[in-house]
From TrEMBL:
<dbReference type="GO" id="GO:0033194">
    <property type="term" value="P:response to hydroperoxide"/>
</dbReference>
<dbReference type="InterPro" id="IPR005583">
    <property type="entry name" value="YaaA"/>
</dbReference>
<dbReference type="GO" id="GO:0005829">
    <property type="term" value="C:cytosol"/>
</dbReference>
<protein>
    <recommendedName>
        <fullName>Peroxide stress protein YaaA</fullName>
    </recommendedName>
</protein>
<dbReference type="Pfam" id="PF03883">
    <property type="entry name" value="H2O2_YaaD"/>
</dbReference>
Length: 235
């Protein structure tokens, strides 16, 4: 089983450690594409109004400027680089079965996909529809092959999901229900998906290997509705 997470917009810079080495990241088939993306991002970020070209506010200009140091800044585990609601709920440093982090992968506008343990620097870059199309051509042959026999619990959304809409993914949808009325709330969805990942990593049983096994595992902790391939968590 694979747990596929979205990245977070906010990231924690690492204060020590070696800089980014693309040759050490998972899926070396993507090294050339990652190098191209890093070079492009650094070039844009070095421009006077690079923040505007990247579609962020001037308030985030310092984070955009930090993009120019991708190969200089300290890198650390991706699971600790990404922050925010989902990652707070996941709380990877306290999972019971640390070895299960090997099943966790994270979608990235810059790197395409990284493993939880891959060392990356903090950066500011968002997956746009155009970029998702660019990555889809490159990720599909790699992930379709690498994960062909896996059940992929897909906690991504939007453009990140479009970058690799694998045939064997189980998209996790989160809805709230009040007086019989359901709606999707982004903040709630991110938090719950973090809890979903944490539950699968922490439970005492073996990791599930089938879609129904995933559903059964999640029903231990959540109200679940399953309409293949989509898993809906009702909160």
């Amino acid at each position: 089983m694979i747990i596929f997470l979205p990245p977070s917009e906010s990231k924690t810079p690492h204060t020590h450690g070696d800089p980014l080495n693309l040759d050490q990241l998972s899926f070396p088939e993507l090294t050339e594409d990652r190098s191209h993306m890093c070079d492009t991002l650094m070039e844009i970020s070095a421009r006077e109004r690079g923040w505007e070209e990247l579609g962020v506010s001037q308030r985030l200009a310092p984070e955009v400027e930090r993009n120019t140091e991708l190969f200089i800044a300290s890198a650390g585990p991706a699971i600790n680089t990404y922050t925010g609601v989902l990652y707070t709920a996941l709380d990877a440093d306290t999972v019971t079965h640390e070895d299960r982090l090997d099943t966790v992968f994270i979608s990235s506008a810059l790197f395409g996909v990284v493993s939880a343990r891959d060392h990356i620097p903090a950066y500011r870059y968002t997956m746009t529809p155009k970029l998702a199309t660019w990555w889809k051509k490159r990720l599909s042959p790699v992930l379709d092959d690498a994960w062909a026999a896996e059940v992929v619990v897909d906690c991504r959304s939007g453009a990140y999901r479009r970058a690799w809409p694998g045939a064997n993914t189980l998209p996790v949808k989160v809805v709230t229900e009040t007086d019989g009325v359901r709606k999707t709330v982004s903040h709630n969805a991110k938090h719950t998906r973090g809890l979903v990942a944490r539950h699968l990593l922490n439970r005492g049983e073996q990791m599930p290997t089938t879609p129904q096994g995933v559903v059964d595992a999640l029903e231990e902790a959540f109200t679940v509705e399953y309409d293949h391939p989509e898993i809906t968590i009702v909160v």
